[in-house]
Structures are given as structure tokens and as C-alpha cells.
Amino acid sequence: MSYKVKLDIFEGPLDLLLFFIKRDEINIYDIPISYITKEYLEYLDVMTQMNLHLAGEFVNIASLLIRIKVRMLLPSQQVEDSEELEDPRTELVQMLVEYRKYKEVSSILKKIEDDQLNLYYVTAKTDNDEIDPDIFLSDIDLLDLGLIFNKLLKNIPKPSYYNIQDSKINIPTQMQYLKSLFIEKKKIKFSEISTHIEDRIELIVTFLAILEMIKSRFITVSQKTIFGDFWLNKNKEETFNVIQNS
Amino acid sequence: MLSKTHKIVEALLFAATEPLTMEQVEVCLEVDVNLKNIVLDLNYFYDEEEIPIKIHQIADGFILKTREEYEPWIKRLYQEKGNVKLSKSAMETLAIIAYKQPVTKPEIDAIRGVSSYMKTLLEKNLIEMKGRHEGPGRPLLYGTTSYFLEYFGLNSIKDLPKMQEVEELIKENDNENPTVPQELPFQDSSE
Amino acid sequence: MLSKTHKIVEALLFAATEPLTMEQVEVCLEVDVNLKNIVLDLNYFYDEEEIPIKIHQIADGFILKTREEYEPWIKRLYQEKGNVKLSKSAMETLAIIAYKQPVTKPEIDAIRGVSSYMKTLLEKNLIEMKGRHEGPGRPLLYGTTSYFLEYFGLNSIKDLPKMQEVEELIKENDNENPTVPQELPFQDSSE
């Protein structure tokens, strides 16, 4: 099973849950927890299979969903008090309702932004020879210029909004890691390796490492179906080297 | 008919580089004026004469802006540069700050369910720090700037839609049950 | 009577922050126009309707100016404290030009992350054009003026504070610049 996932359309786990709620016309105050948990976990599963970085927040909400599900399955022992028992879903519902409000507001703001950016400030010059430019500059001195420039240099905008952390791994270390896996095995499924991969950079580096290893004939690669999982096969003649290196 | 006072205010509006305030007009004219009425008259005149501008009230002042219908041509003048719009996540963060200010980052994150980045909003001067919360860890408090009002063409923060209105809007959307089932944004690429 | 083309040219003049050229008008309208005649018609219209502006032709193109007879009031507006301040964006633009000159607008925009306007700085004679870059599109190069040096009491642009000096100064003040906490803030409130 392989998917192309457009993850960037969801702003987070709450956004994803709201998507399910809207899609399936679910009453937000009466969420079928089993169903939505199943949908949610399936989605996370796809994300994991795609080796996409699963933000901690997604996992947090998954465990919250499972906890609620368990609590709902537990038979309430005191039937008389059952009305007073809090619905296990309350907390989740409150979070979703609150988030949904601001999501709505942000789409309103988006519309206002679109409208406003269509309007341009009108500017007319003035024959302001008499206006003393010194007044204009009165608020800044030389040092301010330096400070402003320094700050700008430090904050040169990145081309994207994603916060990419420095990756500590590189191709040689990843090759070492992969080679170490072949000490005990001759064949490794790519998906076995990729489940340990935490972000895209690491995934790319791992791919490059694999390519390097194919190039140096340490391994060969086989794949049964297009877009399917693939196998990394150790070349026999390299066995000796591995043991040496390890 | 537009008076001399109207014309002076109009000239000031053309010359101003920031929203023109009541106080500024009074200092310049040395008399009390009913700025709101003058603006109404001028806008009426621009409408009548089809002059491609309109006076807007924002952030406690008045500014001249071009009319929306000329945007397609003006846009070409700027070759679409400069108008970088806010990302979805930045807009969500900004929405929360606008309504809950002064607000801390943990509060914003709790509502969004994900960690939020303030950097872009701070850089764009849409939000600013408003001191620190007295609670544990003394987290920084954030609020919107006057440029925020200018950016969204608002006169005051009170001009944002009321939360009650927003909730009603959501209710309406709820009732409009979408008949076309939306697909999860997955595509089975093996097809 | 003013045609639709007149109105579009008028809107472009209102929105332009730099002199509007024949080429720009043709790019925006996608047709050949007799810009001089349009300007004549518009100026005639402004005269008739006593609109306090006039279109002037200068070397680079056409610009809108307020009428001379409104200068006394506009002057007061400009001298009123608060209205003449360098805006944050103008200050940033000036700092970049001072340190990186000669520099092109795209380079300035890249550092600031937003489109920059040179108009005010050019008007105040703080910066000037210094020829064109040899690269693609031959963008204009900007640098500071002799008035800039004079105002800040500099003999040469090399006398600007070095970035290293600025760094040291910032270090001393570091305690006043708390960093934004970046911890992952999601809290499971059921705990």
C-alpha cells in the first residue's frame, strides 16, 4: 500500500480531527469515538508508512483518543450516578470546539487580508523643500543603523516556514549504520529501516547512503512492485569486509 | 459643494504618509473640524466623479487607498512582488493572539494543538511582546500591533467579528450538511 | 469626458511609489496609449474640480504632487511631531543601503523579506541611484548620499559602526533581550 499524502493541508491533530468530523457529518458534541479513533490511527499509519515525521502532538492526541475509547468501553459500575459521570469525551470536544472557532476566525482574516492587499496606498509628493530633513532623522543615530542592520542580518527570512533542524547524520555515518544491520541479516526490507527514521532529511540521507552502497556494490536492491517496498540484499563477496569494519 | 476646509483635508490626506488623525488635522487647520463628515463628503465626491480612490478609516486615522476594481492593473505595476500573504499556520496563530491578547505561547499552542511560530508575525510587525505573564516560568505575553490594524484595514481591534458571530457562522455551516463526500487528501498512486 | 483608460492611468499614478513611466503604463494596460494627452486631460479635470493635486512630468516619468497653495498646511503636518519619523521599514532599508552599497532593490528585499520602498529615502535625499547592476535585468543600484554622511557626521561610509562593534554592544545588553521559550508546549490536561 503506498500513498501520496498531502500532509501540509492539516495544521495539526485537531485540524485533522475536524476534517473527519466535517467529512463524515459528525456531530461534534457526540463523536463516535471508536470510529474516529480508527480513522485517525489509519491516517497516522499512512504517515508512518510514508516515513514522514510524526509530530509529537499527533501521538499525544492518538493516546488521548485511545484513553477515551477505553473509558467509554468500561461498564460504569454505579448506574445510579451515571448521569453525573462526566462524558470521557468532554475534554476533547472542548478542545475541538475552541480550536474550530479560531480556525473560522483565521479564514475570515484571510479573506480580509486578500481584500486589503488589493488596495494600494495613494501617495502624492509634496514640494517639501522647506521641510527640514533633520526632523525626519531625529529619531535615529549612527548606532541605530548598525543595530538595525545587525538584526536584519540575523533574521534574514528563510524561504519556508518549516523549522529545519540541523541534522546530525551524514552519508558515511548512515552507511556505517546500514552496514551494521547486515551483520546478522542478508536481506533487509526498506520499511524495516525506515520505521526508525524521524525526519525527511534523515530519509534523504539514508537513500543517498543506500545509493552509495549500491554503487560500491555492497548491496543490491530488488523490488517486486512499482512503489512497493524494496529489499536490500547484501552482496556475498563483501561479507568479509563487513566483519572487518565492524 | 466642497468647502475650502474639505480641500485642505484632502490635500493633507494626499500628503500624509501615515493615517491622518483628528489631532493632526486640528493642528494643521487650527480650528475644530468634523473630520468624519468631511471624509464622507470627499468619498461621495470620489464616487460621483469616478475618481479611483477612497478614504478608509483605520487605526484611528484616515488614509487614501486605490479602489479595488483597479487592482488588476496596479498589480502589474508591482509585478505581484511584495504582497506575500500569511501562511495558514501564521494566520491561525494571529487569530488567537488577536482575540485572546495578551496571551502566552503555551496558551496559543494549547488551542492549536501544535507548537506555533511567532517569528514571522513578529518580523512582519503584526504582533509584539507585551510584557510577561505573572505565572510560573513568567512566559512572554503577545498582542497585536497598530500595524495589525493597518494590515487588515481595521479601525480598532473591536472591529474584528465578534466571537458570538463566529460561533453562529460555524452553526450555519454545520447545518449546511455537505452532500458531496469529501475525500481524504490521499491519492492511491498505484492507480 | 475621461475614458476608462484615463481612469486606469490615474489609478496607476495614485498607487505608484516611484515615477510612472510610459513603459510601465504600456505593460499594465497592454495597449499603446498617448500618456501625455491623458495626463493633460487629468490635469485639466483636477483644475476644474479643484482637486488639490497635479501631475508633473519629471525626468523619470510622471508623478503626483500636491498643489503649491496647500503647502502651508502640509508643512505643519510634516513638522508635527510623529508624522515625520522614519518608518521602521524606511529605517531598515536605509541601514541595508548604508552597509551594503551599492545594492539593488531585489537584494534589499531579500534581506528584509518584504518589498521595500525607496521613495521617502530618495525624497529626503538620504539615498540616491548609483547606476545599474551589470546582472540580468540590470537593476538600479542604490547608495547613500553626501547629505547622509553629513547628517551623521561621517567622513566616509567606512566610518559606520563595524558589525563586530555592534555585536559587542548587543552582548552587553543581552539580559534585556530574553529569548522566546521554544519548548514543546502541548500538555495533556487530563494528567
Explain what this protein looks like in three dimensions:
The complex is a heterotrimer, with one copy of chain A (about 250 residues) and two copies of chain B (about 190 residues). Chain A has about 250 residues and is mainly alpha-helical. Chain A has helices at about 15-25, 35-50, 55-75, 90-115, 135, 140-155, 170-180, 190-195, 200-215, 240-245, and strands spanning about 5, 185-190, 220-225, 230-235. In chain A, helix 1 (about 15-25) packs across helix 4, helix 2 (about 35-50) runs antiparallel to helix 3 (about 55-75) and helix 7 (about 170-180) packs across helix 9 (about 200-215). Residues about 1-5, about 130-135, about 160-165 and about 240-245 of chain A have low confidence and may be disordered. Chain B has about 190 residues and is of the alpha+beta class. Chain B has helices spanning about 5-15, 20-30, 35-50, 70-75, 90-100, 105-110, 120-125, 145-150, 165-175, and strands at about 55-60, 60-65, 105, 125-130, 140-145, 185-190. In chain B, about 35% of the residues are buried. Chains A and B meet through strand 1, helix 1 and helix 4 of A and helix 1, strand 2, helix 5, helix 7 and helix 9 of B.
Distinctive features:
heterotrimer, A: 246 residues, mainly alpha, 3-stranded antiparallel beta sheet, disordered N terminus, disordered C terminus, B: 191 residues, alpha+beta, two-stranded antiparallel sheet, 6 strands, 45% helix, globular
